[in-house]
């Protein structure tokens, strides 16, 4: 067996190859391009023509380098950067060659405890990338919304009260049509009503009267330069927001199309409160490889729902798990929050935790931890959620505990 430590970067990769005794057989650097990847493959296979005899260790499980190694048949073992940093601490020394050799040595000593990377199926991999990328777009939409609200507060605060939400499509169109307080004050009720009707507002006449009345009330007036400058910024933010929201909607369509194609979609769609965006995210993060998780406890750790025990001397307490798959944790957290609105036992459990002095997020994590066990059983057995089954299982557990 040979252990290949690869310290990767955007431009080049440092590679150290050790044998089972820890002797360094090769050390070299390759550029991050196709020629460099082929050189890596060539030099490794010159040691042993069988790719399965190499364990490639990196501090990532994504990217073109990992994809090349997997396609070439080399086993890949991704390491948490914190593990490598911990091993580096005694000396404190850090360089690309040192890190490459350190990765190889970790593989040589701890390979039995490491998890070999097994790629997701294509549909799951694409669904995972789409849902995570959409989360980024949603965060960008939130950022632009906050900037738009802050901008309006500086020169046009009355506009924030025209509609129930400042980011409604009709509201954004209204801001483009009436970008300053003077323009909306000059508009008549029939003009505003006609505009609202053209954008299919459900109550155009009543809303037009309300907008006109609010616009005519005495307002704090910004200076002319402020109105001109912030009016320009407002229009720029509105156009950016419209583009992002349009792309979020397009992502929804593609995510739903892929989700419906997967045979496990019915399992996650059956979860109460998961319809819409949460069910595809749960499927994407969970995956469809039934051999990936040894038991529910492993899944709870990866999802960040199970606490970490801290014990030293007289002190013993549990704290939030930091090392986990963050998108997985977020999906479970959001699902737990939705479930307390629709599932009576979930709401009761949440209230119990709150009454014990837990914070909102602590109670949700505890509830999500239970949901992970439930979903794990559903996922393993390929069955949909049935509340009666859970209630019966909980009753049996309570009887045994008594």
Describe the protein:
It is a single chain. The chain has helices at residues 34-47, 64-71, 81-88, 96-110, 122-155, 169-177, 181-186, 189-198, 204-216, 224-261, 265-269, 278-286, 296-302, 326-342, 344-355, 360-381, 387-401, and strands at residues 2-8, 12-18, 24-31, 54-58, 76-78, 308-312, 315-319. By secondary structure, it is of the alpha/beta class. The strands form 2 sheets. A 5-stranded mixed β-sheet has the order 3-2-1-4-5. A two-stranded antiparallel ribbon has the order 6-7. A hairpin with a 3-residue loop joins strand 1 (2-8) and strand 2 (12-18). It is globular, with a radius of gyration of 28 Å.
Q: How many H/I helices? A: 17
Q: Please state the structural category.
A: alpha/beta
User: What is the overall silhouette?
Assistant: globular
The N- to C-terminal Cα distance equals 52 Å
Sketch the topology as an H/E string, one letter per element: EEEHEHEHHHHHHHHHHHEEHHHH
Q: State the strand order across the main sheet.
A: 3-2-1-4-5
**Helix fraction?**
55-70%
- Ranges with pLDDT <50 over ≥5 residues? none
Total strands: 7
Major β-sheet profile: 5 strands, mixed
Q: What portion of residues belong to β-strands?
A: 5-15%
């Amino acid at each position: 067996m040979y252990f290949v430590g690869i310290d990767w970067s955007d431009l080049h990769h440092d590679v150290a190859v050790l044998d089972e005794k820890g002797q360094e057989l090769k050390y070299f650097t390759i550029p991050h391009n196709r020629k460099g990847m082929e050189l890596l493959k060539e030099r490794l296979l010159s040691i042993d023509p069988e790719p399965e005899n190499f364990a490639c260790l990196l501090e990532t499980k994504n990217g073109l380098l990992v994809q090349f190694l997997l396609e070439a048949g080399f086993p890949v073992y991704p390491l948490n950067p914190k593990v490598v940093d911990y091993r580096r601490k005694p000396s404190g020394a850090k360089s690309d060659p040192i890190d490459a050799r350190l990765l190889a040595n970790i593989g040589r000593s701890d390979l039995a405890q490491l998890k070999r990377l097994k790629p997701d199926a294509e549909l799951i991999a694409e669904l995972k990338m789409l849902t995570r990328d959409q989360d980024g777009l949603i965060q960008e939409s939130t950022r632009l919304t906050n900037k738009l609200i802050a901008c309006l507060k500086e020169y046009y605060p009355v506009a924030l009260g025209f509609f129930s939400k400042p980011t409604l499509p009709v509201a954004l169109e209204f801001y483009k049509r009436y970008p300053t307080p003077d323009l909306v004050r000059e508009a008549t009720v029939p003009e505003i009503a006609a505009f609202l009707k053209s954008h299919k507002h459900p109550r155009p006449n009543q809303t037009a009267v309300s907008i006109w009345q609010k616009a005519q009330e005495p307002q704090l007036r910004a200076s002319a330069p402020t109105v001109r400058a912030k009016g320009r910024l407002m229009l720029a933010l509105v156009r950016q927001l419209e583009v992002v929201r349009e792309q979020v909607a397009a992502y929804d369509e593609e995510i739903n199309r892929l989700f419906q194609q997967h045979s496990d979609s019915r399992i996650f769609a059956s979860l109460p409160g998961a319809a819409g965006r949460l069910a595809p995210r749960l499927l994407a993060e969970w995956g469809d490889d039934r051999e990936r998780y040894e038991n529910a406890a492993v899944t709870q750790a990866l999802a960040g729902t199970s606490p970490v025990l801290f014990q030293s001397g007289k002190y013993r307490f549990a704290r939030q798990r930091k090392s986990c798959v963050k998108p997985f944790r977020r999906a479970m957290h959001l699902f737990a929050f939705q479930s307390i609105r629709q599932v009576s036992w979930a709401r009761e459990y949440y209230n119990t935790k709150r009454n014990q002095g837990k914070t909102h997020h602590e109670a949700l994590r505890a509830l999500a931890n239970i949901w992970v066990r439930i979903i794990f059983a559903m996922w393993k057995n390929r069955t949909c959620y049935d509340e009666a089954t859970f209630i019966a299982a909980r009753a049996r557990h309570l009887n045994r505990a008594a």
